[in-house]
Amino acid sequence: MDNKLIKNTDYNRLISEIGDLLNVGRRQMASAVNTTMVQTYWNIGKYIVEYEQKGNERAEYGSDLINRLSRDLTEQYGKGFGKSNLLYIRKFYLAFPKGGTVSHFLTWSHYYEILKKDDPLEINFYVKQCEIEGWSVRELKRQMQSMLFHRLAMSKDKEQVLKLSQEGQQVQKPEDILRDPYVFDFVGLPEKYNYTEKDLEDGLLQQFEMFLLELGKGFAFIGRQQRISLAGRHYYVDLVFYHRILKCFVLIDLKRGTIQHEDIGQMNLYINYYKSEMNVEGDNPPIGIVLGADADKLTMQYAMEGISNQLFAAKYQLYLPSREELQNQLDRIIRRQENDDNDN
Question: Cβ(81)–Cβ(74) under 8 Å?
């Protein structure tokens, strides 16, 4: 072999190895800088709160402490000490008074967004979920805007809501991947527009990153309009995924209007086919989800009675849910549980 070629190969390998080291080093440096910033802001918040608790705020500056701190710190140390940031730094310490509970997987930008919430349950949930799913700040904003915590909490009792806040959404069984309602506002279809199921499917796949974010962790896309041929007839599953955590196929059928009982029967057929014909060794039984704009609970109850497969009906909506409505529902769940506990 040409010596020059050998030297070039060795040199290229050297460049590649140095590049790998630099990339690792830069990531570690960024992580170290972030950890230091988060810890520093927590300590600043602690100093502010301790100063206030000693009565110094009332004695010396009254309610003008944050304003004065903002002016003086900015003058001496530059940017980063605006009034808004200082208020959130103070709130940061109050929300996490034990330094050991602060997650260094999150940046200050993550905390800044999360601390816009006031409910401790909600704050803890989004911190934990960021750790589990590795959300960017943009993804975090989307999930907070879509009221993910409230939507997941709707199907739980008080004890489960507390667990959700402390541990995040743990995917251990088929029910854990469900969200009701699913929010597809990113598709851009007006709620009253006479769209077709294909329009909805196209919109979801055109905004695929947002669609996967809405579905949650673990979904790997297999394909759309997957054909099933039986007795000379062809059927098509709208969307097929494989769930990496649950180790099973997830079949999704989209319905523009209200879910009907025959939609349940059709999905049951799809599940049975995939269980018999598509599953391989190590796969768990498939999950089927029929998504519609509406679903009558009683009809769904009768339609699914006797079905042993993992089959679910859930609603979707093309607009962001009302925070007031979801908060009221969550409050009712917690109050009802507290009343039951008192009666016992």
Answer: yes
